[in-house]
């Protein structure tokens, strides 16, 4: 399944998502690797098997094995970090001064350019709603790639997440 096949599965009541998904899949403001990795990391973070399969099928030939693993790693590590740092941010106090004591070595050596990995972490953090992580990764991405890249990553995150939720609801209503 590809993104075009995924678009065909989006119900008519969500046709704006279909149009946005198609437009973003053809975005040229990011490099092909940045675009593909952002889509893959977001699909994994959106937790919908159908969306993940379609997105990975769409971009598997764009990403090297190492870049695909890095996008998967961004989704995995931010799944952990977003929960932990969201907790720290919500509770405040001494927790922000305490070491996390969570292994996250992939951030230091992701296997792709650091800015690409940061872009993917930013998009996943937007999906997972971690203010602290979004702020941290946004600063790095904006300084390296500009505000347009930040906005594109946020748009991809928003649309992929909405498509995943819509398809999940459609499947529930069918069954």
Automatic annotation (TrEMBL):
Keywords of the record: Antioxidant, Disulfide bond, Oxidoreductase, Peroxidase, Redox-active center
Reactions catalysed, as given in the entry: N(6)-[(R)-dihydrolipoyl]-L-lysyl-[lipoyl-carrier protein] + a hydroperoxide = N(6)-[(R)-lipoyl]-L-lysyl-[lipoyl-carrier protein] + an alcohol + H2O
GO molecular function, one term: hydroperoxide reductase activity
Enzyme Commission number(s): 1.11.1.28
InterPro entries from the UniProt entry: AhpD, AhpD-like, AhpD_core, CMD-like
Broad EC category: oxidoreductase
HAMAP family recorded: AhpD
Family statement: Belongs to the AhpD family.
Function of the molecule: Antioxidant protein with alkyl hydroperoxidase activity. Required for the reduction of the AhpC active site cysteine residues and for the regeneration of the AhpC enzyme activity.
Stated name of the protein: Alkyl hydroperoxide reductase AhpD
Organism per entry: Acetobacter peroxydans
Originating gene: ahpD
């Amino acid at each position: 399944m590809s993104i075009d096949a995924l678009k065909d599965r989006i119900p008519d009541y969500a046709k704006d998502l279909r149009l946005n998904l198609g437009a973003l899949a053809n975005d040229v403001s990011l490099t092909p690797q940045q675009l593909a990795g952002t889509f893959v990391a977001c699909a994994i973070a959106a937790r919908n098997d159908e969306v993940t399969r379609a997105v990975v099928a769409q971009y598997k030939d764009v990403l090297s094995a190492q870049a695909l693993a890095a996008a998967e790693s961004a989704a995995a590590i931010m799944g952990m970090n977003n929960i932990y740092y969201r907790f720290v941010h919500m509770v405040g106090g001494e927790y922000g001064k305490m070491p996390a004591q969570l292994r996250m070595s992939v951030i230091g050596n992701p296997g792709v350019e650091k800015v690409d990995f940061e872009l993917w972490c930013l998009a996943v953090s937007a999906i997972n709603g971690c203010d602290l992580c979004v702020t941290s990764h946004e600063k790095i991405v904006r300084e390296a790639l500009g505000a347009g890249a930040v906005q594109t990553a946020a748009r991809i995150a928003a649309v992929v997440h909405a498509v995943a939720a819509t398809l999940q609801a459609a499947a529930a209503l069918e069954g």
